[in-house]
Design goal:
The protein is α+β, with helices and mostly antiparallel strands. Helices cover 80% and strands 9% of the residues. It is rod-shaped and about 205 Å long.
Length: 275
């Protein structure tokens, strides 16, 4: 039993590092998969950012083309000096320059002839549309252009983080299930080994009992024979003692008798009893 316990302990000690290695491999695979997924999402988000900026730049460019055409039309109306042309031109500019979050202005000969220039061009998308005697500029802050992209990015990252947490939780549960199954299999193997050892011990004990029972039977036979021999020897000894006693009594009768006839009768009676 002690050897069996030592064998079971050695098996447990050998099984634990293996189970720990399997757990680490599963977690490593899951972490690598999540890392690859995060990298793909990050690259996709970066590409989407560039596409969003490019779309914003194209929209600004289209707006500038329209404004440049309208500016030329306004100049032509001003040249013709039609009644109300300047008022219509100013109203048109006021309507078109209200582009959400964008700064639009017109420069002619280095002077600003319409609109409001941007105060910070470092973090803005700057596009221009040049005509013969004027240039139309538009500056849109990148924060405004990327507002929808940032919202989508936040939702995407939060969703991915939630998926990662759920996946890690499921992996943890899977590892626990595998560990419990491994422990159950190890305990089952240990129990099977103990049963085999107990079966071997039982068979050995039965053989030992059979051998001892046979030896006891042989010893009983020998004792019975010795007892018979002893009883026979005792009977022989009793017969010898009786014979010796009779001879002694007969000799005593012969030596102490005065009448031969009586002595002969007594001796013959003693011989008959002996026989």
């Amino acid at each position: 039993m002690r050897n069996n316990h030592q064998a079971g302990s050695a098996m447990n000690a050998a099984g634990s590092p293996r189970a720990f290695t399997v757990d680490r491999m599963i977690f490593l695979l899951v972490i690598l998969s999540l890392g690859f997924l995060w990298a793909v999402v990050f690259m996709f988000t970066r590409g989407e950012r560039e596409q969003t900026l490019e779309r914003a730049r194209e929209q600004l460019q289209l707006t500038l083309v329209t404004l440049a055409d309208l500016n030329e039309l306004a100049e032509q109306l001003a040249t013709l000096e039609l009644e109300g042309s300047q008022a219509r031109t100013d109203a048109l500019w006021r309507a078109l320059l209200q582009y959400p979050a964008a700064s639009i202005w017109v420069e002619s000969d280095g002077k600003i002839t319409g609109g409001l220039p941007a105060t910070d061009l470092a973090g803005s998308l700057l596009v221009e549309e040049a005509r013969d005697d004027f240039v139309v500029y538009a500056a849109l802050p990148e924060q405004e252009a990327l507002a929808a992209w940032r919202q989508d990015r936040s939702q995407r990252y939060w969703s991915l983080a939630l998926v990662s947490v759920v996946l890690l939780g499921l992996t943890h549960l899977l590892v626990l299930a595998i560990r419990r199954r491994t422990e159950a299999e190890r305990e089952s193997a240990a129990a099977e080994e103990r049963n085999q050892q107990l079966e071997l011990y039982r068979e050995k004990l039965e053989r030992t009992v059979e051998e001892r029972t046979g030896e006891l039977a042989d010893a009983n036979l020998r004792l019975g024979e010795e007892l018979k021999e002893r009883r026979a020897a005792e009977a022989t000894l009793r017969e010898h003692d009786a014979l010796l006693s009779s001879v002694t009594k007969g000799a005593a009768e012969l030596l102490g008798a005065h009448n031969n006839d009586e002595v002969i009768d007594a001796v013959l009676e003693l011989i008959g009893k002996i026989v």
